[in-house]
UniProtKB/TrEMBL annotation:
Adenosylcob(III)alamin binds at residues 147, 168, 197. This is Ethanolamine ammonia-lyase small subunit. Keywords: Bacterial microcompartment, Cobalamin, Cobalt, Lyase. It comes from the Bacteria.
Amino acid sequence: MTPFERDPFARFRNATRARIGLGRAGDALPTSAILDFQLAHARARDAVHGQVDFVALAKQLAPVPTIRIRSRAKDRTIYLARPDLGRQTNAADLPSPGDRYDIAFIIADGLSASAVEHHAVPLFNACMKRLGAFSVAPVILGEQARVAFGDEAAAAFGAEVAIVLIGERPGLSVPDSLGAYITFRPQSGRRDSERNCISNIHADGLSYEVAADKIVWIVREALRLQLTGVDLKENAEGAIEALPHQEA
């Protein structure tokens, strides 16, 4: 009997992280498959409930200046139960109006602390190498923050573009995936359709270099065309093209 006949799913299993062809032990899954699932579930829960060490993160970013801004969710329990509070900044933490910038980076914990701690700084550094002469605000460290949190935070710096690097909702195969959300002229009330998203940035997904290339392409085109979101898309050749604007 050939290896394929013994395990017809073997060749597919090598090409995907999905759980396929797990086998059976009587009327249940094999013990190894059950234990693997329980471990993946525990890692996902740890990612959601974990806390980002923002002090260590600021040290990793040094000498780049940082400012820590909290959302209106006072703790992790409230953050998970009240997504709306995670989208709003704590006004007391916002800086006074001052210099204006082309770009503001917001590093937000989101739904995966491990994603932020593993990938946010390397991705930020890769972006900075590609941004050239653009002026960049002090990095905003968003605590108990969701994507829309970046709109208010970046607007406080008068930034033309907000780039939110945030921990994505963990799955059972990847608990530490980072996402990047780019918004032109961020302000409170921006819709998700007005953003561009680069997702699945992790060790087995999109590399820092490729993700940074995509992010910076979008930023340049956002500033040139004065828009982000569904009207701006990346074509197959790697360029960014604007779609004809549709009036509501």
